[in-house]
């Protein structure tokens, strides 16, 4: 990041902070920093991948590829590094992953577990990631948890459970 870009980022962040606008999110001042962070992390992963043994075997960098990522901060393009032997498999943003979410399927299962309908989950994901997920895909994901929920609902209960009741009284003392 050049000094001019850094100054402009600082100015935009200060203006948004003074006006009460959020600094993060789609139009936030810090949204471009996510792109730079991801690209730097991918470069570091590539450096780690191209150890001395890999380089001696003839594996070297082989340019960069463009990838469109959807996140809560909006849609943006990043450059992913590539190697000659195509053995680099990034962990931060995996191959063929376009939505930046920590385990989107786990989030869908969590929303379903909270009682949201498939339509609510679909509209929630559309709001957050600007991406459509069909009801068929959602059904396939949520069908994985139904046997676990049924097993939990039909589990044997203990005849007696211990309950601890705590109470407190607060007094102002000067």
Shape: extended
The whole-number mean of residue pLDDT values reads 79
SS-based structural class? alpha+beta
What's the main sheet like? 2 strands, antiparallel
| Count of strand segments | 2
Low-pLDDT windows of residues? none
Amino- and carboxy-terminal Cα gap: 54 Å
Q: What is the strand arrangement across the widest sheet?
A: 1-2
Total domain units: 2
Q: Which percent band covers the strand fraction?
A: 5-15%
- Count of helical segments? 7
Computed CA radius of gyration, to the nearest angstrom: 24 Å
Keywords: DNA recombination, DNA-binding, Transposable element, Transposition
Protein name: Mutator family transposase
Family: Belongs to the transposase mutator family.
Function: Required for the transposition of the insertion element.
Task: Describe what this molecule looks like in 3D.
There is one protein chain. By secondary structure, this protein is of the alpha+beta class. The chain folds into 2 domains: 1-100, no CATH class; 101-158, no CATH class. 46% of the residues lie in helices and 12% in strands. The chain has 7 helices and 2 strands. The chain has a two-stranded antiparallel sheet. It is extended, with a radius of gyration of 24 Å. The model has no long low-confidence stretch (mean pLDDT 79). GO terms for molecular function: DNA binding; transposase activity. Keywords: DNA recombination, DNA-binding, Transposable element, Transposition. Residues 48-68 are annotated as: Disordered. Required for the transposition of the insertion element. This is Mutator family transposase.
């Amino acid at each position: 990041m050049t000094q001019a870009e850094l100054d402009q980022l600082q100015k935009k962040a200060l203006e948004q902070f003074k006006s009460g606008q959020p600094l993060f999110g789609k139009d936030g001042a810090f949204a471009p920093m996510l792109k730079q962070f991801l690209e730097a992390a991918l470069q570091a992963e590539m450096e780690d991948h191209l150890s001395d043994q890999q380089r001696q075997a003839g594996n070297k960098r082989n340019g960069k590829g463009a990838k469109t990522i959807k996140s809560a901060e909006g849609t943006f393009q990043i450059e992913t590094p590539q190697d000659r032997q195509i053995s680099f498999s990034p962990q931060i943003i995996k191959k063929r992953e376009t939505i930046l979410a920590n385990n989107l399927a786990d989030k869908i299962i969590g929303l379903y577990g909270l009682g949201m309908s498939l339509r609510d989950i679909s509209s929630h994901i559309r709001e957050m990631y600007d991406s459509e997920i069909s009801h068929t895909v959602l059904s396939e994901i949520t069908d994985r948890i139904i046997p676990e929920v049924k097993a939990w609902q039909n589990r044997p209960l203990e005849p007696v459970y211990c309950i601890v009741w705590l109470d407190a009284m607060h007094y102002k003392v000067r």
